[in-house]
Batch of 3 targets.
Target 1
Amino acid sequence: MSISKTYLSEIRERAERAKEKKALFGPDIDLSLYSQFIERGRIESLEGLSRQAKEAAIMAGIDIKEEARSGSYLQVDHSVVYERLNRIYEGKLEIMSTTEALTKYDWLEDYYWKAVSVEHDKYTAQAELNMTHGYFIRVLPHQKPEYPVQACLLVAENHVSQNVHNIIIVEEGAELQVITGCTLSKKDAEGIHIGVSEFYVKKGGKLNFTMIHNWADNFHVRPRTAVVVEEDGMFVNNYALLKSVKSIQAFPVAYLKGDRSSAKFNTVVYGLKDSYIDLGSRIVLEGEDTRGEATARVIAADESVIYSRGDLIAKTEGYCLAHLDCRGILFSDNGKIYAIPQLVSDGAIKAELSHEASIGPIAEEQVEYLMSRGISKDDAVSVITSGFLNLDIPYLPQTIDRSIKEVIKATAKEAL
Amino acid sequence: MQEMLKVQDIWVSIENKQILKGVNLSMNYGEINVLFGPNGAGKTTFMMALMGFPRYKIEQGKIFFKGEDITDKDLYERARLGLGISFQRPPTVKGVTLRRIIEIITNGGADKEGISENIKKLNLSEHLDRGLNDGFSGGEMKRSELLQLMVQRPDLVFIDEPESGVDIENIALVGEAINSLLGKDRVKDPKRSALIITHTGYILDFVNADKGYIIIDGSLICGGNPRDILSEIKRNGYRRCAVCQ
């Protein structure tokens, strides 16, 4: 049974009211520039993608052969072109578009726009008023699929606003890994990707979520993510942005509602060309004995500008512990990094919140140390830079690792 | 015996401050030399300048290694030619693991036979996936340095104060590792040469050194049997060395 019409119309009304509301951070985007609607036909397997689309998907972490994946979801522009669930997980794991899930489950009303507010800004409003699918992934209670589910949101055309709404539900005692790749197959495409993501980790559940963003020079990105974690639940978020982007602004938030729940954000950003990057992570500690950790490693090369934000907000009367670690390296004298950590204790008298933020060059003594082992200066800088970014994300194709190393090698020369 | 290293009248400054004032030294293949000297005399500067660290500026003089003039060679080029160094206090490199550096030096992996044996011997198995020197104790740092040198296989090794920051228990392990690195436990294979800086002389209980030298105020003032020199220093400090010239 589908979600109630009353709820949907109420949501629409709220979206209508917010459709001109500018975001707090990041340059304002004129959404009327991106009004193309592109529909695509279904494909039988990921091998059926065009060469460019396949390459883009691989570079965004997608395993085309699906050998080490529990299931796949692929969306190109405004159409869902592929969904597949590994048979052994039938009845244990669900993968479909959010649009389909909304027609199937009336209980989705308890999740749809419940973690992210539809009137947050014009981008959330756009995602509701002009929604173009997004994925719905749900792992049933106590199920623990061995391999990750992969989702790819790909833009292949110009002047597109891809407005997806993703929902992940990890039911009680279940565990799930998800790799999401958001990318472009048309490198000079102008457009915007708006991704609303609402994740729910139930009691004792675990969600390990990895997102690779591969955009290009003329593309804007506005993700809006919120995660609700119940007692003893655990959420891990790995995020990597390693290619240029016109502008991206996101500030995902994890609400640790349940006692003993935890959240960990690992963010890796490599700013290239004249990218405008404003990214952060926020952890709200509401339950007792909750734990939060947010780590960001950013490098600004070329003329890129990076805002690296982090908020830890404690609201529990009980004990909680959270740490923020934000480090930046500037590779170019035309680049800019702002590290903005913020700790808030809101009546949380037992909360222990801490942060360390630093911006500095690669230490020369580290480079020389490696050189004394016979490693050339360029290689030493690359090795240290790769180590600084520390992209140790399981199940990512090796091509990504190789490509990152190439980018580092090409830009790291400016570092010293 | 053939000459491996020849240092001719080198003058070295750091940030325009003259540290070494015309040092000469000759070392043969397979020879182990020990450098003594008070704090600030120029021992580490001498080693770092020979290794080619850019901060240590050679104002004058020449360095020949295996017959080749390396005075103007870059740090990593000297390392590739066969010079190696064990730091007194190596820097921490958080993101680069000990395993990674071994892989790079060996162009392969830490799992190769021989290498994994040394890792076990040096008690470093649990340190392989940690950042270089990140939270390592004094002894762990020295063992990690020696492991890296074992895989790098230099012909001439500079070892800066191997006993500093190492507890009594670990000194024997470090001493044995140095002997193993230098090939003193082998009969046939070519042996490595070493120049060792020591303050305490403890390392002489483990390493059979050939010659000792004293540096005072940037000059190499005397050479001789390392044990005799150490006994003299222990008896009278460096005061007599400074005047016996």
Note: The first strand of chain B starts at residue 3 and ends at 14.
Target 2
Amino acid sequence: MSATAYRPTDVKEEEVHVKEPSYLEDGHSVKSWLLTGDHKRIGIMYLITISIFFFVGSLAAGLIRAQLVLPANSLLEAETYNKVFTAHGVVMIFFFLLVAIPAVFGNFVLPLAIGARDLAFPRLNLLSYYLYLLGGLLATTALLTGGIETGWTFYVPLSSMYSNGQVTMAIVGAFVAGFSSIATAVNFIATIHKMRAPGMTWGRLPLWVWSTYATSLVIILGTPVVAITLLLVVFERVFRLGIFSPELGGDPVLFQHLFWFYSHPAVYIMVLPAMGVISDIIATFSSRRIFGYEFIAFSSLLIAALGFLVWGHHMFISSQSMYQSVVFSLISFLVAVPSAIKIFNWTATLYKGHIRLQTPMVYALGFIGLFTLGGLTGLFLACLGTDVHLTNTYFVVAHFHYVMVGGSVMAFLGALHYWWPKMTGRMYPDNWGKVNALLVFVGFNLTFFPQFILGFLGMPRRYAYYYFAPQYQPLHILSTAGASVLAIAFAIPFFYLTRSLKYGAKASDNPWHATGLEWTVASPPPTHNFHETPVVTREQYEFGHLVPEVRAIEESDKARRDAEIAAEHAAEAASTEAK
Amino acid sequence: MGTVPIAPEQASNFAYWHDLIFYTLSALTAVFTILVGVLVISFVIKYKKGSNADRSNPPHESKIMEFTWIVIPTGLGLVMFFAGAKLFLDMRTPPANAMEVYVIGKQWMWHSQHSNGVRENNTLHVPLGKPVKLTMISQDVIHAFYIPEFRTQYHVVPGRYTQQWFVPTRVGRYQLFCNVYCGTQHSEMGGYVYVMPPDDFEKWLENGGDTVKPMSLEQSGQKVYNRLGCNNCHGAKSNMRAPSLAGIYQSKRRMTDNSVAVADEAYLRESILRPYNRVNYGYEKQMPEYAGTVTEEEVLQLISYMKTLGGAGDVEGAPKTLEMDPRKGSSPVPPTSSTVGAAGAISAQSNATPGQRPDQNSVGALAAQAPSKN
């Protein structure tokens, strides 16, 4: 295979084989992977790369939790600790969370889900992978050759004037990775606009495609801002160009505005695709048309739009104008509403469904619980009076981990278990998956719930030790105990999923009875996805043709509705006759 | 560690209102989380595939339902927004009669300065029940001045003044944290805020940042002199058992071996610690050796006191009593000593944990102590 095989006209000319090789069998050389234009192979390359970054970031998290068991610094020097938590943040945010769901499943599934042969720009897609890899390598090099101790937020003038270490290299890494995001987002938007199969109207798009679309808009509008901001930090650091540091005539608060203008929407880059995946999983495993399709779809766009107007809630106590803070607080309360809409619609979807508690569904239900708590605790921080006390404490740490781990990582694991049979053609042991999903849920709560209380008690984040405040120790011990459970729960899927590649049962084309177009092709799919361009004739979440029980109910409902209508007509006719 | 605390003390005017909003939000969070949890679990049980539940007419959308779950959360959210905004506007509007204290943050310590010039390092003393306004600026990077028990904090930014205010409502010692990551020793950048009864605070402020007036070296020396009973033998009136100390400093002394020594600091120190090394002509070896019983600090204090004991002509007079005013003493007292004084005023001080942060003194001492294990 080669990149030239992507001209759409080729499809028609191609002979239809009895059994076309899957994308995995289509070329085994290293080159056939590294220079591929196939969205599925690029998706797999992303999956492997983000898994490595996730491992690195988790290792850092483990060190952090181990350090905080004792109030005095028992394991790491303050400087090392600072480098470790910075590494944790930089790796997890820039090289795992921002890429995880969009780049892995967006790449692998998006074209399949809308009936396209590939993304609109396959070569750009490959370039975006290599930009991501280059950014990741630069940042990793920075972390390994001296490290950085600025925190992932790179607040100035600490990062530009005071902090030693490889700040410049790490920032350039994040900058390069930003262009990878932009290229991917452009690709997704073009693909969703121009390459939907006939009949795949906007109203029939899977909801996770909607959220991927919203995410892509956020990436395109936000990433350039943070890219140029970080570059300005480098300019100030290297050339002493006064932008942010008051010593050089700059304004340090300006940096925070620019940084959060991107970095708050970035939270939605991480969580919107997660919400989309959950919508799909819940509909599939309830065999039920999703409740309030339009509301869920438009709430994604509303989140993307309002998400750009709330950055100031990171700065209530950073000397921005008091009235500015009030406005940002109000909008922050409002942005919670579309998230609430989604949660209630998902819950309503379960009503009268045919619920199968398989692994992806257990993750999705766990997501609902954790994201509800994560979202609601966000209100404490949107609320001005309480944010003054809670901001920058462990309350904030707990809140955003509920959203990003409890939300995005749960959804990522759900998505991985959902599309694993499609990606690999193999089934994993469902019981292992289900038990492990519960283990993640329990370990997660044990790790992060105590941190809400720690924050309320006033424990500041980013402290290497707290010997002067030993009252915080019991909750830290609890949190670390939870982190140990969580570490095991994150490790287990690696083993059973890897094992399933060889020993797992062969997956059918549609093991979950799902409605997406990706389930109409073989598992794993052939390189060219579809032999013929599919034509969509149904609404997205209609399960009647897949699940007999649903069909029976649909038919009886239809019969009853018809009877009711007939009875009404009869009654009308009778009344007019009487007159 | 007896009980695990789950709520911080309320020690400022804002704490009660903060907690009221906090607990209300917590209740709302609990209600909604439990509502969603119960609905999800009961639906999963009832509509598990293969169950006999009635599934006819499954709804796919409902404007009324959507309207309900948009309007109710929005309404509740707006109420909480107004409550939070009200408290915030109060927090941002210091009253005109507030006592002003200036705070400077720098890597990695806090300086505060009271209007009469009293300065503190890593501590802040404030009076109970009076509004206090902090005007703050940073010398380097961004910090935040955070007192959890007061429920208040604000960024301390280089290049611009920021403010926060509060009324302390409970006497005690409260933790002070830097709460914006500010570099390597960020964890170390903290100390304590002491809330004192207003009278104690006034006294503290008048005494230059101490609950008792600090003593000069000479005064301390006199105390040691009296404690050790030096006067019993070295008193001005009697030269029988030991030479008088009046005018001894820099005087020439003749020894039992007929050598002559000048009574400088080194000689005086030696004569206190090991008096038999050299004994004055005409006297016996009677004086106890003080090596090991007095500290070097006390020796310095004694010497300073001896220097005040007049010239050779004053032999008749008793050692004069020093005037108790430190500012007139010959050796200036650093005005920054703070917690020593506060210790007496505040009972909380007595249960200070071992290994608490250095509360004062130099940056060097602070940095040196930073990574120490307890």
Note: The CA atoms of residues 343 and 569 of chain A lie 39 Å apart.
Target 3
Amino acid sequence: MKRSEMLTILLGLVIAGAGLYFMFRGVSGDKGYNTGEAVSHLIMLFGGTFIALLLRKDIRYSTIAAVLIIGISSMASNIYYIFFSDDQIAILFADIYIIFSVVMIYYGVALLFHTSASSVKALVCLGILAATEFVPTLFKLYSGNDFMPFINTNMDKLAYGIVHLTVVIILSRKEMLLEGPKKRLDRNSKALYNGRCTPSGCFIDVHDLDSLLDDSGEGWITYDNGPIECERTISLYETDLGLRLQKWKGDDRKHIAVCVYGADSYTIPLAFPIEHIVMDNEDRSKVGKIRFYGDEGVFMDILVKDYDEQPKGYIETIRMKYLKKE
Amino acid sequence: MNIEESSQRLISRMKKGTVYMLAIILILSSAYEIYMVYMADYEDEWGFLDETYSAVIKIIMAEFILFDPKKNVLRAIGFYAMSIGLSRVINSLSILSQQSTFSLVTGLILLAMGINLIYSSYNYLKDTTRGRNGMLLSACVLSAMQVITLLLYYQGYRTAGSVLIDDIVPSVIMLVQYIVLLLILDTEEIRYSTLLEKTSTRVESVTSTNMLLKGYAIDRADALVIRHAFDDRSSWSPVSDGGPVEAEKRIRISDGRIKSNMILQKWYGSDKIYVTMVNDDSGTIMLGNRFSVTQIVPETDDDGSFSNIRLFDGGRMLMQIAVSKENDTKAEGASI
């Protein structure tokens, strides 16, 4: 199961679970349970289940559904206080919840109709709702209320705050976040760059030279189908690209292909059979640059460096030492 | 050494200087905080812990900056901002421990700004400038708070007629730290690592590899090298690496700002000139725009006056390169 699918199911379960919990609290509690709250909790229960069961493979629609469900349920549970409550503070907070719920519903609809591309604004509204639930509670605790009795009496507000915060955390994960124009520009320009250009500082590790030159080393994958007999991938550092070294059936030459490293789907912007290999030093441990010649004017220069000796950050250095010990 | 090389060397020195300057500022401010701890008589435990931990964190981060194997400006700013962020978080806890509404508001603002600085600085340690705006906001808010504090001291001085230097100096030191951060965040180095600048650079690289746009031109000397690629390769570098290349010549085409690099090659046993266009020809060369040329035609036959040159492959025209008029004008001026 993909990570995004797991997160979507979790999202649905959190919302549905919260709906079920508040229904139970409302029915079993002695504070009274108004129609608005009952509708709100039903929306959360059925909406969350809908997301977990039917929208788990669709990040976009599950995000829109979550935003709309929370926005509508928050409106439904708070609208009662505006018309029927006499508690001024409760009315004030209900106003705040409803204003941000309306804004959130607007952004949910905007996402649905593609007038907005990013989910960040909806998440900010959700974050404000969570803060509105947490901050007064924390302020009262800060002002000297006893912890446990106070928590017991404010359990519902804290639970709402935790649910909203959890939804924000889930929807702001890298896999779940709907990208805005800036992120898309970044991703697409990177893809375009990786398909057309190479950073001049990228290099292969000197320890991978043997694989390139002698077919040695581990990681060769053999194929029964198709024209390729076997291939292995070699890392290129300081770029997203990698080299695919291939042996083709019935061809003594090695083939080299450049493509994005570690991707499931990719195109190959450059591939050729290697006709000549030239190094700037005969001693393999001292090679600084290697040149591959194909035919008809095709060549490739690649810097060769010792990856272990490249400057690294503190954490990476510790990690490497630890891994070496292993 | 030309102007470009001199300015590059100067910028490189300034970058190194910035790294050391940040470490020195941290060491000096922590030294002052240790002095304050030594001199002060703390009534509450938090005040003592605040100053002591802040000083220790700053010294540790200064060491991290100085002994960082991947030393660069981005990482130095990361460590610098992290030390300020951590000390602000501890400071905010110290303020929040005094139960009052004013302490709560001040403490929460400091806490939020401190956490934001820590988060942004973590991104800088990964050599990215993600969170630059957040860091700018934190540094601005914290600077504003210090300025307000100093103005309050000034008001106190106006009414009471005196003020304790020991009250003002910490605020001034703090303000200097924030201003240094603000100034560095606004430098070219940091701006060039932002998402928009990175995107622009990538798109420019793709453009310069694959296209020649309006304004791109080569010097007449380089134009003559291309013009005579089939009959006079005396200025080319012979390649004797055992491979198929007989000679190679590298030419830079520029519009004054963006550069495109053209690698011309003559292979043994081939009548064609092979061309590889890349965005940077200084290190690894893999992906680029590759084509062969069978005919090169200048605008006129006079080597001293043609204003463009055209490249053909068989019956197909590939490109036209303009010849820069700048050098011609200079030469004419010199002869007069």
Note: Strands of chain B lie at 217-218, 237-238, 245-254, 259-267, 273-278, 289-293, 295-298, 308-313, 316-323.
